[in-house]
User: Which sequence fits this backbone?
């Protein structure tokens, strides 16, 4: 695997994609940099995030983005059209009619005991009255993307209908060398690369590099910056002073039009920060998680815990942005039933007593194991519970 694989530690899922090396459709293992869930909360999966895709046969790899897979979209039918007579049509749907080409469904009149009568409107605003001769079967109720009319936003996994050759198929890959092309498996089992209609302002890799470098020209660390583009994926190598600088760089790079996604190889000045420093900084900025765990690896911090506010993730980023960290990885669970019973803040210790459901928790820090054991009586005094989950950190 390429050294870029080291940036992708999480196996996301497997997908069938066209492999350029094998020249056939293969199973690819998809790896991500962050923890996503493609089955639940799809709207929480941000677009334009890189995914490392590795062929299980030849181990060849390619970079796709989260928004380039149809199954990761919150609304997978957005921008797709229905082929005439192959779905349950509704007013406003786009359809492809064999004679009238691209049309809009204006009305659908469903009469009890009879087949529906449908009114279409073509591109000249002419109305076409049609009565279905037969109801479509359940297996035929499928959305299609019309190509080449709607090829610009095509994604891997989309069902497509080619309006010029009258063929149906499925997108199994995307290409971005010079121009964009869709790799389509047409029925029956014919694989072709269909070049998209080229936009007059389609940026080349060279133009993307120049654009990115120009936008970063005034940064104080621009002399440490290296930017390259391959298939419209931006690769950034840079020596940065802090996590805040990383966010500043990401904000600039994400503003570049037509860049599919970006990979950052960030190097930070060596620091002596510890997991304890991170935890105490969170408390100092009023971020106290239940069951909080902090782990540092290669200047990246991994934080787990339970919270009760949607703003917690943002608060964590703000609290740690001055630290020399490459990235913050969060694995948080939100529990709306977290209730704070008492907060005790002294010079030598900090204790927060909380209740989650019927369970009582203590979080914070003390100076010694002896103080940690004695703290359970403090929790009992305020909660009247003998059983307390003691999550206090011992910090000398």
Assistant:
């Amino acid at each position: 695997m390429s050294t870029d694989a080291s940036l992708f530690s999480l196996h996301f899922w497997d997908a069938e994609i066209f492999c350029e090396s094998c020249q056939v459709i293969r199973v690819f293992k998809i790896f991500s940099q962050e923890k996503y869930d493609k089955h639940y909360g799809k709207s929480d999966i941000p677009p334009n995030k890189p995914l490392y895709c590795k062929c299980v046969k030849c181990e060849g790899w390619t970079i796709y983005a989260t928004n380039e897979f149809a199954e990761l979209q919150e609304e997978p039918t957005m921008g797709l059209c229905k082929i005439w007579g192959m779905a349950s049509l509704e007013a406003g749907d786009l359809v492809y009619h064999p004679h009238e080409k691209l049309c809009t469904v204006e009305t659908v009149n469903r009469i009890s005991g009879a087949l529906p009568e449908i009114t279409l409107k073509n591109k000249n605003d002419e109305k076409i009255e049609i009565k279905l001769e037969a109801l479509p079967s359940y297996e035929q109720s499928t959305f299609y993307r019309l190509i080449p009319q709607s090829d610009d936003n095509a994604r891997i996994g989309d069902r497509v209908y080619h309006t010029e050759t009258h063929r149906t198929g499925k997108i199994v890959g995307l290409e971005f060398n010079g121009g964009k092309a869709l790799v389509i498996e047409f029925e029956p089992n014919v694989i072709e690369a269909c070049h998209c209609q080229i936009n007059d302002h389609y940026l080349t890799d060279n133009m993307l590099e120049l654009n990115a470098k120009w936008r970063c020209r005034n940064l104080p660390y621009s002399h440490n910056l290296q930017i390259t583009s391959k298939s419209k994926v931006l690769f950034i190598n840079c020596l940065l002073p802090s996590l805040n600088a990383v966010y500043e760089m990401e904000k600039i790079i994400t503003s570049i039009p037509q860049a599919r996604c970006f990979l950052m190889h960030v190097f930070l000045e060596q620091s002596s920060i510890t997991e304890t420093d991170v935890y105490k900084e969170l408390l100092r900025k009023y971020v106290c998680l239940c069951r909080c765990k902090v782990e540092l690896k290669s200047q990246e911090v991994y934080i787990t815990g339970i919270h009760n506010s949607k703003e917690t993730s943002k608060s964590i980023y703000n609290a740690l942005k001055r630290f020399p960290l490459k990235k913050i990885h969060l694995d948080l669970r939100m529990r709306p039933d977290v209730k704070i019973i008492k907060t005790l803040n002294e010079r030598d210790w900090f204790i927060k007593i909380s209740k989650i459901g019927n369970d009582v928790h203590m979080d914070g820090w003390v100076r010694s194991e002896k103080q940690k054991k004695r703290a359970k009586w403090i929790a009992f005094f305020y909660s009247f519970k003998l059983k307390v989950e003691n999550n206090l950190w011992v910090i000398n």
Remarks:
- The two ends are 43 Å apart (CA to CA).
- Residues 275-332 form a domain with the GMP Synthetase; Chain A, domain 3 fold (CATH 3.30.300).
- The mean pLDDT is 86.
- The chain is about 15% helix and 40% strand.
